[in-house]
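Dear colleagues,

For the upcoming journal club I promised to circulate an example of a predicted protein-ligand complex. I picked one with nicotinamide-adenine-dinucleotide because it came up in last month's discussion. The inputs are reproduced below in full, followed by the predicted structure.
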Amino acid sequence: MAELFIPPAQQLIDGEWTAARDSGELPVVDPATGRTIQTVARAGSGDVDDAVAAARRAFPGWAATSASERGRLLRRWSELIGEHVEELARLEARDVGKPLSGGRTNVFIAQGIVEYFAGAADKLTGVTLPTRTPDYLGYTLQEPYGVCAVIIPWNVPAVLTAANVAPALAAGNTVVLKPSEVAPLAPFALAELARRAGFPPGVLNVLAGIGADTGAALTSHPGVDHISFVGSTTTGRAIMRAAAENLVPVKLELGGKSPNVLFADADLDVAIPAIVGSITENAGQNCYAGSRLLVESSVAGEVVERVAELMKAVRIGPWDADLDMGPLVNEAQYRRVLGFLESAPAEGARLVTGGGPAAEGEGGGWFVEPSLFDGVDPRSRLSRQEVFGPVLAVQEFSGDRQALEMMNDTDFGLLACIWTGDVSRALRLAQEVRSGQVSVNQFADAGVIGFPFNMQRDSGFSRGGGYAAMREYTQEKAVAVRL
Ligand code: NAD
């Protein structure tokens, strides 16, 4: 089995590793030390032209390839991912700064996603339609768009590569993937494994580069037929404006400010560790992170105390120490999170634990302490804006009505988690909350296969995750026949 190796200062276009046309390079930095560990090519607009042209050339052949054969190649890809879990996990962990165990979990998730869409490739069907009389036939075809541009952020690059590339390819599209300039290694490595799996040249192309430069060149490219974007709400708006210019459909998965709503009748021994994990996993740098804790007043004192104890016990260190939490991804993210930690008390919040840089960062690296604030003003920045760090904002409520109002008091609509022993209350709130996803007595979607990764309002609109993604990456054609 050949070792997984990403050649320095290169990108993957038309099945070949090449340098950027102008030999531009991007450093890839270990967030635990601030040191450069590798380079990749920095793609310019000429490289974007090359990648889109390669994807265009590959499209007719790939779309005409039988769905079963596309599924077979995806299955081979997933097997190769399974054979390289440790190497991929190291790349993901080192690049983002997450503990090795977290990198491993992400790679297993990515592998599962590719396997899922391997099985979905030949299940995509249209429908036959009822007709007024028997001498007519009406039916629909699900057709790929053509060249899909996929732009992803740095926080879970392996998972987001799989979640967007696999359904796009399964449905017969070709792809130009632009990972984040901050963490491109796992996406490149996954693409190399796709190459080894036997995908024809040009079906999957990957180039890295700065968003406002390479990303903008890709989203405004006339050769792109569909844009799938995962990232911040601000960039999502820019992507939509670019898509409007060429009238290209766009799928957006954006930021969040997800509430954990904790009622006094919940099993606190289960809920509290999960709530702490929801904001410290990946150092809080997850779109669905449980960044707001809404707690019923009668148990608020006890809950805040127990959450603080667990936050103090979080073991912090670099990726290879494989503890509970790593650093933030880079200096920009570090400064941003410290800004929230500094402004929160001025906005009336009470600091319970944490609140600043962590000692582990003294030798370099972007470590911050898991931080807990209570009495957070619902109008404050800490309550309303996505921090994207291990910072938890606590607010108290009394009764179901107020809990619902507070859950919905956000511009985002990604995930809401309801913790209660009363099943009727949980189901009622699940119906009334304005959120693309709801989980009850657990954080997020563990245990459900193909859970749709839905979003509402400022969190975007997407039917990613699960079988719905096959429709997201296809357009429907309606056919009417007089027999
Ligand atoms: P970002 O918006 O800064 O960048 C995301 C990607 O867009 C990167 O590849 C970047 O290079 C590119 N980009 C930036 N400007 C661009 C432009 N003008 N045109 C084209 N591309 C451009 O986000 P980030 O800081 O990398 O990631 C963090 C954000 O991602 C958070 O808001 C988080 O909530 C969100 N996120 C959402 C999901 C989800 O599924 N909803 C999942 C993970 C992360």
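Two points we might discuss: Residues 102 and 150 are 24 Å apart (CA to CA). The chain has 15 helices and 24 strands.

See you all on Thursday,
B. R.
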